[in-house]
């Protein structure tokens, strides 16, 4: 491990998300301070220079995502102000400006050669928007968002050069989403689905919580870093839940997205079809309730031991015959799922077996963080997983021979003098 | 002097045959006189032209491999001038002018020199006065240098020392005392991996818990950047290590590809094995070169080396052991291996030390020294017959006559031990070995006759010591092992001695059994990775060897695995789709990816690893920054020349070529689309179109044409004409190369081009041609409906031209038809299809203003018809009157 740089004063408040552009030469960061900043790597000296900085939203920005460069320099930001915004960098040469109120960026170092302009505001969400991600480029200029109203929304850009018109092509409640009709009653997926998603309760609660969210927004979010503590019970649903999405990077399987919402602790693999309603192909449920179907799972038990999934990341499959999906949850687990796509089988022979179904198994389950995991993310080749937890550590995971996942180092920001005697157990782990 | 030619040799190693203790050619780090040198091992560069030397020998060009040779010292002519810069690339070397003059002079007398060299080398004359003795510089800095690669990574590498990826890596400046403090402040860390290299951006984020934050929110928050691998150092030699070994790797891949396609049983062909062995030895040579370089005490302005000399030594021992064990010379697979093992041991683990020998030879009564017997035993055990004989001769001064006598006998026995290399048939060797053993037995008998009382001198029981040595010669396994333990030697030594003394017919396939037995009693050192690699190689556990090797250095595991696979040492398939070889090669490639500047090498390795590797390579390849914005490299070439001059787009061309080389069409198209998008952004429409069509991205092409047409609206006809002329050449290419290409977009492109031609004619006041063009456009039906109005409005100027009638009657009628269609359709309510663009060209205008403009067209049209009617009639009258 080696430190390659630092931006000592990146934001005036905690950073909620950072996202590299396609090439890794630029970094977009967003923060509780409602601003988005863009940093450019100066390759001659390895320093990161501020390229642009503007106030993007009226509440904390939660997530930021880059579109594929074949569509230009475009980012989308999601915020607690219940909107998703699409931004584009314009060159100084001046491309045709559509007759649209152009919001000039705040202070910041507008070098007048290029600046970021708001192209669209997507206001449909009825809760704070927690995640946004552009679809893989072969599906066109599309983005998905998920908000605390448990709705997954897919937007498609209709007018590409101007980026102003975005159609809400899909809007679906994750928890109410039906399973694939072809799913056999014997698959694990359906069982767990029946158990773990009591749609009724959660939807009624969500309805009730909507105004609370607004309240929380007004009193807490704009200044402080998390939802207010004075709101026990329902108010904590916001804080205890997890809302996350991740697109399948492959083209072959069509438009697939993994999404998790609320406190249920499951991730659904959702297939989006142009002519049909989205269906759930598979549910990733780590709870051991498969055998003991009697055990009542109450997703609203909430509390600090919530099993909500905070982060999901779909690895680029890169020629593998299966998919890898990583999840991180409030239960402190980092899990890696190996998801095997269903074969396209027509004859009844094969339909008996599980070949026709998507199936999943856990290939790695780590509790090293020992506290809630906030983020998991793969590298570009899907070979290294990074996870971040409340223990103040970034941990890396790699597959070793025999496809066993092992720790591959961790990063912290504490005083390094203590490093030697602090974690003898970890030091023994042989990495790499 | 190589053969009959004068060549440039990059000296890798110097071998000496001085100080006859071992009699083998030992390597030397440096020397001041040519006299002590026996061989020079080096990489040969062939003269190409002027000051250029080529690494690839024409004789070997088909194979494309690097040529190494051991050159007899006599062939050495002169050093390159010391203070001249030598430029080197992967395959070429350019020497300075002074050096070239030297070369030229030598070349002029080539034939005489060749004669002289030949006689010098054969006669082995010591008097080398023919050539003045040049002073040697240290061998590895003989002149080849490679410029520092342009990268900011330099300073990163400086601070870096190799750190195993264990434990917690802490970032600076620290934020908290203990990691728990973060959570207490409602904070936590988060990170996102960079696509550029193996680094992460680490930032402080709100803790994902329901506890509220107590930390003041307005504090400045940092973002850290941390790489998961230490970037390969730019320290020169290592950069060459990576690039040069790639050359061998590529040659090896080539060999596999061509041979496999020819013959499924190719591996058994002797010729192929020979080449494989040669390539493996090339690897060994390179490692050795790096080791020598790294072990030099030269000042290192860039800071300490990323990898120590000892690291390269480890690689060297492992790789050369691999060659000894698994890549014997073809035809010698079944031959006894003992001597080769011992030679390997003697090269890499030198015992007993020269100092001890020098120390003993300086003593009057060496046997009184405590190192005497251990030295003699070790020398014998190692088969260093000359050293043993030398020491035994010293015993002639020993007070015991028995010992004197025995020592003499033993000296003759040791020096007469049969060596495999001196025999043509193994049978003869075995026979000679048996006879030699008999002599040893005789010596034993002789020893036993020495009286018990005479077996001591004043210091020691010499008889016991002597007996041990005889035991070794007799090949008694238990004695060999005990002696090794006493001497502090490890299992490797026992193994090698086994092959020399215990079982002279020790074969490669016998090794694992014997090694297992030895290891039971003398276990390897599990903390020493190098030793573990040796153990696994000896035991024939290729997969284990790779696992240990990857701990030592991913380079080693990757390149060993690469050779192991065709040798069927590791299986081709694995249960999880990625073969063992690919796992290791990919791991190495991933390490290389930590430096984005090495992307070419990274993908070269990745693309050798089946589908998985290819797709990973794609991911890396499409993310190579194209740097289209580098204006500095942009030459001001216009039009077609600009498109053809591919170097304008620097990296893009490179990446494109790599895609072609590896047939990664998908990745190439993605890259082209991105490039096109960027170029459009910069209004470089010509290049954008050519990249779009290269990616067969017809939709993208359509968008570009729209953008160009938009230029008409926003920037006016003149700018538009200029942009459109940029894309004109690609239209021709399109029609030639993609006759079936999506018609709609090409149609629109065609209009853009023709319309711009028309505009240019107008600007140049070639109005007659312009008018013809205008009509032709409508006649050929290339004008999209939305552009009819604009185009017709352009006609006004031509219609009102006073000096001549520019349109034929039929042409004018054509225009009129179109004009009427617009009016009719507009009255039917679908005016938007026709008027939109014209309306946009009018500042603040709408359809009404557009229609008004079209009315002026109608007016001009009416006037034109009137004029033409009058003039025609007039003409008619003139003609008629002429007739009359």
Automatic annotation (TrEMBL), chain A:
MF-aspect GO terms: structural molecule activity
Q: Where in the cell is it found?
A: Nucleus, Nuclear pore complex
- Which GO BP terms apply? cellular response to amino acid starvation; mRNA transport; positive regulation of TORC1 signaling; protein transport
Q: Where is the composition biased (Polar residues)?
A: 413-422
Question: What InterPro entries does its record include?
Answer: Sec13/Seh1_fam, WD40/YVTN_repeat-like_dom_sf, WD40_PAC1, WD40_repeat_dom_sf, WD40_rpt
Q: Which Pfam families match?
A: WD40 (PF00400)
What PROSITE patterns does this protein's entry cite? WD_REPEATS_2, WD_REPEATS_REGION
Q: Which organism is it from?
A: Favolaschia claudopus
Instruction: Provide the residue intervals of the WD repeats.
Output: 8-42, 54-88, 306-347, 366-407
UniProt-recorded name of the protein: Purine-cytosine permease fcyB
Question: What SMART domains does the entry give?
Answer: WD40
Annotated segments matching region Disordered: 407-432
Question: Which family does the entry's similarity section mention?
Answer: Belongs to the WD repeat SEC13 family.
One GO CC term of this entry? Seh1-associated complex
Q: Which UniProt keywords apply?
A: mRNA transport, Nuclear pore complex, Nucleus, Protein transport, Repeat, Translocation, Transport, WD repeat
UniProtKB/TrEMBL annotation, chain B:
* Record GO terms (molecular function): structural constituent of nuclear pore
The signal peptide stretch is none
Q: Where in the cell is it found?
A: Nucleus, Nuclear pore complex
Question: Known InterPro entries for this protein?
Answer: Nucleoporin_Nup85
The record's Gene Ontology cellular component field reads: nuclear membrane; nuclear pore outer ring
Protein transport found in the keyword field: yes
The UniProt keyword set, sorted, is: Membrane, mRNA transport, Nuclear pore complex, Nucleus, Protein transport, Translocation, Transport
Q: Which domain of life is it from?
A: Eukaryota
Say yes or no: keyword Membrane present. Answer: yes
Question: Where do the record's region annotations for Disordered lie?
Answer: 202-222
Name any one Pfam family assigned in the record: Nucleopor_Nup85
Q: Name one GO biological process term.
A: positive regulation of DNA-templated transcription
Role, per record: Functions as a component of the nuclear pore complex (NPC).
Q: Which family does it belong to?
A: Belongs to the nucleoporin Nup85 family.
What do we know about how this protein assembles, alone or with others? Component of the nuclear pore complex (NPC).
Its recorded name reads Nuclear pore complex protein Nup85
Q: Which organism is it from?
A: Favolaschia claudopus
């Amino acid at each position: 491990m080696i430190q390659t740089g630092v931006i000592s004063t990146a934001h005036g408040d905690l950073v909620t998300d950072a996202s590299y552009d396609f090439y890794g030469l630029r970094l977009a960061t967003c923060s509780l301070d409602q601003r988005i900043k863009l940093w450019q790597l100066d390759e001659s000296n390895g320093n990161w220079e501020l390229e642009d900085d503007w106030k993007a939203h009226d509440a904390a920005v939660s997530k930021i995502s880059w579109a594929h460069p074949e569509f230009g320099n475009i980012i989308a930001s999601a915020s607690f102000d219940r909107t998703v915004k699409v931004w584009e960098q314009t060159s100084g040469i001046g491309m045709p400006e559509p007759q649209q109120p152009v919001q000039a960026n705040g202070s910041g170092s507008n070098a007048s050669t290029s600046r970021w302009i708001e192209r669209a505001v997507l206001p449909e969400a009825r809760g704070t928007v927690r995640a946004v991600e552009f679809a893989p480029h072969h599906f066109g200029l599309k983005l998905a968002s998920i908000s605390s109203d448990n709705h997954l929304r897919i937007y498609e850009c209709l007018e590409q050069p101007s980026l102003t018109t975005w159609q809400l092509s899909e809007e679906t409640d994750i928890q109410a989403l039906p399973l694939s009709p072809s799913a056999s009653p014997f698959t694990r997926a359906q069982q767990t689905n029946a158990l773990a998603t009591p749609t009724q309760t959660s939807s009624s609660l969500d309805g009730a919580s909507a105004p609370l969210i607004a309240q929380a927004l007004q009193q807490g979010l704009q200044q402080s870093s998390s939802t207010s503590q004075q709101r026990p019970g329902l108010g904590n649903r916001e804080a205890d839940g997890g809302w996350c999405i991740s697109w399948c990077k492959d083209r072959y399987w069509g438009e697939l997205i993994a999404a998790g919402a609320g406190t249920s602790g499951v991730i659904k693999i959702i297939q989006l079809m142009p002519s049909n309603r989205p269906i759930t192909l598979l549910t990733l449920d780590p709870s051991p309730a498969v055998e003991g179907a009697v055990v009542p799972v109450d997703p609203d038990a909430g509390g600090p031991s919530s099993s909500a999934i905070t982060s999901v990341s779909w690895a680029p499959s890169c020629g593998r015959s299966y998919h890898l999906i990583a999840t991180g949850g409030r239960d402190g687990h980092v899990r890696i799922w190996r998801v095997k796509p269903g074969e396209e089988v027509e004859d009844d022979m094969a339909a008996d077996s599980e070949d026709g179904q998507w199936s999943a198994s856990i290939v790695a389950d780590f509790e090293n963080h020992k506290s809630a995991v906030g983020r998991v993310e793969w590298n570009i080749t899907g070979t290294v997983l990074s996870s971040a937890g409340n223990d103040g550590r970034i941990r890396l995971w790699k597959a070793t021979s025999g496809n066993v996942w092992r720790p591959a180092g961790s990063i912290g920001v504490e005083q390094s003098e203590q490093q030697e005697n602090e974690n003898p157990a970890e030091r023994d782990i042989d990495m790499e | 002097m190589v053969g009959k030619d004068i060549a440039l040799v990059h000296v890798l190693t110097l071998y000496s045959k001085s100080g006859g203790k071992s009699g083998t050619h030992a390597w030397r780090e440096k020397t001041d006189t040519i006299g002590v040198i026996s061989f020079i091992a080096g990489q040969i560069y062939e003269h190409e032209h002027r000051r250029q030397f080529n690494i690839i020998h024409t004789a070997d060009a088909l194979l494309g491999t690097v040529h190494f040779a051991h050159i007899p010292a006599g062939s050495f002519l002169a050093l390159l001038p010391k203070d001249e810069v030598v430029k080197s690339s992967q395959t070429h070397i350019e020497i300075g002018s002074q050096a070239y003059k030297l070369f030229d002079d030598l070349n002029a007398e080539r034939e005489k020199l060749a004669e002289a060299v030949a006689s010098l080398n054969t006669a082995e004359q010591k008097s080398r006065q023919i050539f003045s003795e040049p002073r040697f510089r240290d061998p590895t800095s003989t002149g080849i240098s490679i410029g520092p690669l342009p990268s900011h990574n330099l300073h990163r590498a400086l601070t870096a020392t190799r750190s195993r990826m264990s434990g917690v890596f802490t970032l600076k400046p620290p934020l908290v005392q203990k990691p728990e403090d973060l959570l207490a402040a409602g904070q936590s860390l988060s990170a996102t991996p960079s696509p550029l290299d193996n680094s992460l951006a680490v930032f402080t984020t709100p803790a994902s818990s329901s506890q509220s934050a107590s930390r003041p929110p307005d504090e400045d928050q940092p973002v850290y950047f941390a790489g998961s691998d230490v970037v390969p150092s730019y320290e020169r030699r290592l950069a060459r290590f990576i690039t040069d070994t790639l050359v061998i790797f590529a040659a090896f891949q080539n060999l596999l590809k061509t041979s496999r396609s020819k013959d499924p049983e190719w591996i058994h062909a002797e010729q192929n094995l020979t080449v494989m062995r040669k390539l493996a030895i090339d690897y060994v040579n390179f490692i050795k070169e790096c080791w020598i370089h790294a072990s030099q005490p030269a000042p290192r302005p860039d800071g300490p080396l990323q990898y120590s000399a000892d690291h390269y030594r480890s690689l060297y021992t492992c790789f050369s052991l691999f060659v000894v064990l698994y890549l014997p010379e073809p035809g010698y697979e079944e031959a006894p291996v003992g001597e080769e093992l011992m030679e390997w041991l003697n090269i890499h683990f030198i015992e007993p030390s020269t100092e001890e020998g020098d120390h003993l030879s300086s003593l009057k009564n060496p046997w009184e020294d405590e190192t005497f017997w251990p030295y003699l035993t070790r020398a014998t055990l190692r088969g260093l017959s000359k050293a043993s004989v030398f020491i035994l001769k010293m015993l002639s001064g020993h007070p015991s006559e028995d010992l004197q006598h025995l020592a003499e006998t033993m000296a003759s026995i040791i020096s007469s031990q049969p060596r495999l290399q001196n025999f043509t048939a193994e049978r003869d060797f075995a026979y000679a070995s048996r006879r030699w053993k008999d002599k040893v037995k005789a010596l034993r008998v002789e020893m036993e006759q020495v009286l018990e009382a005479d077996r001591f001198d004043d210091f020691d029981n010499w008889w016991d010591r002597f007996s041990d040595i005889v035991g070794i010669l007799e090949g008694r396994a238990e004695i060999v092992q005990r002696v090794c333990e006493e001497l502090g030697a490890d299992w490797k030594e026992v193994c090698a001695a086994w092959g020399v003394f215990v079982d002279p017919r020790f074969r490669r396939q016998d090794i694992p059994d014997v090694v297992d037995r030895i290891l039971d009693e003398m276990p390897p050192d599990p903390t020493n990775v190098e030793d573990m690699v040796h153990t696994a190689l000896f035991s024939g556990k290729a997969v284990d060897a790779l696992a240990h090797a990857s701990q030592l250095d991913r380079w080693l595991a990757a390149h060993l695995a690469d050779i192991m696979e065709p040798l069927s040492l590791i299986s081709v398939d694995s249960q999880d789709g990625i073969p063992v070889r690919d796992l290791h090669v990919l791991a190495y490639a991933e390490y290389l990816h930590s430096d984005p500047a090495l992307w070419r090498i990274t993908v070269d390795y990745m693309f050798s690893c089946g589908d998985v590797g290819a797709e990973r390579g794609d991911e890396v390849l499409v993310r190579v920054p194209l740097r289209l914005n580098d204006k500095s490299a942009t030459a001001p070439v216009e039009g077609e020349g600009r498109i053809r001059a591919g170097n304008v787009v620097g990296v893009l061309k490179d990446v494109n070529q790599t895609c072609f080389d590896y047939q990664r069409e998908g990745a190439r198209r993605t890259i082209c689309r991105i490039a096109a998008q960027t170029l459009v952004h910069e209004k470089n429409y010509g290049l954008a179109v050519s990249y779009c069509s290269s990616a067969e991205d017809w939709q993208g092409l359509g968008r570009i044409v729209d953008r160009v047409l938009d230029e008409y609206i926003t920037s006016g006809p003149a700018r538009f004409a200029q942009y459109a002329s940029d894309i004109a050449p690609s239209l021709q290419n399109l029609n030639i190369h993609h006759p079936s290409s999506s018609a709609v977009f090409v149609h629109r492109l065609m209009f853009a081009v023709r319309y711009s031609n028309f505009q240019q004619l107008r600007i140049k006041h070639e109005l007659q041609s312009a008018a013809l063009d205008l009509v032709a456009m409508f006649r050929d039906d290339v004008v999209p409906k939305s552009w009819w109005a604009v185009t017709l409005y352009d006609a006004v100027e031509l219609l009102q031209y006073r000096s001549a009638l520019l349109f034929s009657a039929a042409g004018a009628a054509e225009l009129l038809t179109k004009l009427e269609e617009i009016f009719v359709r507009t009255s039917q309510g679908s005016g938007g299809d026709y008027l939109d663009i014209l309306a946009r060209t009018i500042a603040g205008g709408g359809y009404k203003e557009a229609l008004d403009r079209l009315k002026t067209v109608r007016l001009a049209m009416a006037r034109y018809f009137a004029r033409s009617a009058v003039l025609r009639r007039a003409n008619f009258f003139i003609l008629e009157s002429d007739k009359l």
